[in-house]
Structure formats: structure tokens, C-alpha cells
Design brief:
Alpha-Beta Plaits; alpha+beta; 10 strands; 10-stranded mixed sheet; 247 residues; 2 domains
């Protein structure tokens, strides 16, 4: 029974997140619906590298599934994309060994967040960037990013509603913030991310950028392990799961 790995991109604006839900439109639901048609009514469960929330996009989400069919990579790609809606696209298909697992074998994930730093909203970008009208000190945001890099307990920067058991220690290999005209791109690469962690870190960086906080407060917030110290969770539409890396 072949195991198939797919790299998938999707526009999250019309989805209630990735994970399947009985009454809502989800990315998993659409992919499994397409697979069920290919498998003539037999349901096929997919396994993603992780779940994304309502409104969050993906450029390089990774999934795997098992099948009885022996089809070429190109034909799998064509069959899935023919059946999928136009806001989900399978970019690459490969046959992998049965030891591969899309979630448990992840070495690194990269997320990117886009902010439109303009006074006036751009209605055509409203589902794809977070429009933020206030002045931002990019240098201070870049300084705060340096404090986020490395191994930390990210309890203060993850949702208090998270169901994750066990350690909240994660390692960020990269935290960077750059301005390109009125667009700000923030990149995080790490060995794992807690629930809402990226969106809470962005909220902290925006506080620093508005000079409501000093960049050095980032370390104090991490050390306190208290979600109440970190400020707001930013909206989902600026967030993209960019890339998932395996060994």
C-alpha cells in the first residue's frame, strides 16, 4: 500500500481552518472529499504536518495518506487538482516510505506574517495582510526579534486555551522583521510552534514597534511564563504556513 506525500497550498480565507469539522468547510474536508471520489466512495484519512486556524493560509503545507492505488506522481497531482476547489492546490506529490509521517517527522517549520502599514485600508488585500495604520519603529522590532531567537519556554507567547500537554520549550532558528515600502514581512523558523504562538509574538512585536514596550522586555515576558503579559493575538489573515522541512 503506497504512502503518498503532498505539498499543498491554500487560501484560508473561506475555510474554518484545516482540521475537519462536521458542519464547516475545511481544507482537510475538501482534500478527503476529493480522495473519496478517486477511491470510488472509500474514505481516506489524511495526516497534515499541523493544523492551521480559520483564515490562515499555506504556501507549503505537507500531508500524507495511504492508498491501494498504484498511480504515478503526476497523475495523482492531476487527479487531485481536477477535483479540488480553486482555493486549494496540490503543488507536489511523492511516494514515500511507510516510516514517513507528515506530523511526527517535522524538523522545522517556517511561518511568515504580512502587515500592510498604511493609514488607508486596501480592500483587495484585506484577506491576505493585516492592515495596521500606526507608526512602527522597525529597528526596535528587529531588536526584539533577536531576543525571541534560540531555545525558550514560550508559555507567555502561546494561547492559554492550548490543549498541548508537556513542555512549552521550543527553539526559534530565525525571527526577522523587514519593511518593503509599506509592507512588513515577519519570518519565524523553528522546530515547533505552540497554539497561536506566531500571532501572539507578532502582537508583542507590534507593541514594541509602537514603543509601548522596550525590546528588552521580550526576555522578561518569556521568563515569567504568563500569557497575560504578552498582549493581543493578531488576526489570522496575515499568517502563512510557508514551508515544512524534514530530515
Amino acid at each position: 500500500m503506497p504512502r503518498i506525500k503532498c505539498i499543498v497550498s491554500y487560501d484560508g480565507s473561506q475555510f474554518s481552518g484545516f482540521q475537519i469539522q462536521p458542519k464547516n468547510r475545511t481544507v482537510q474536508g475538501e482534500i478527503e472529499k476529493a480522495l473519496q471520489k478517486i477511491h470510488k466512495g472509500t474514505s481516506v484519512r489524511i495526516h497534515p504536518s499541523g493544523r492551521t486556524d480559520t483564515g490562515v493560509h499555506a504556501v507549503g503545507q505537507v500531508i500524507h495518506f495511504d492508498t491501494h492505488y498504484d498511480i504515478s506522481n503526476q497523475n495523482w497531482k492531476q487527479a487531485l487538482n481536477t477535483l479540488l476547489p480553486n482555493d486549494v492546490y496540490v503543488k507536489q506529490v511523492t511516494i514515500v516510505s511507510h516510516s514517513f509521517h507528515a506530523r511526527y517527522d517535522v524538523m522545522e517549520k517556517e511561518y511568515r506574517y504580512y502587515i500592510l502599514n498604511e493609514r488607508e485600508p486596501d480592500i483587495f488585500k484585506r484577506n491576505y495582510v493585516y492592515q495596521f495604520p500606526y507608526d512602527l519603529n522597525i529597528e526596535k522590532m528587529q531588536e526584539a526579534c533577536q531576543y525571541l531567537e534560540g531555545e525558550h519556554d514560550f508559555t507567555s507567547l502561546s494561547s492559554a486555551k492550548a490543549t498541548t500537554k508537556g513542555s512549552k520549550v521550543r527553539t526559534l532558528y530565525q525571527a526577522s522583521c523587514n519593511r518593503y515600502g509599506s509592507e512588513i514581512e515577519i519570518i519565524f523558523r523553528g522546530n515547533g510552534f505552540l497554539y497561536n504562538m506566531v500571532r501572539i509574538m507578532i502582537g508583542l512585536l507590534l507593541d514594541v514597534g509602537q514603543e509601548k514596550r522596550d525590546p528588552t522586555e521580550t526576555l522578561e515576558i518569556l521568563e515569567e511564563k504568563d500569557r497575560r503579559l504578552a498582549g493581543d493575538t493578531v488576526p489570522p489573515q496575515g499568517l502563512y504556513l510557508w514551508k515544512v522541512t524534514y530530515s
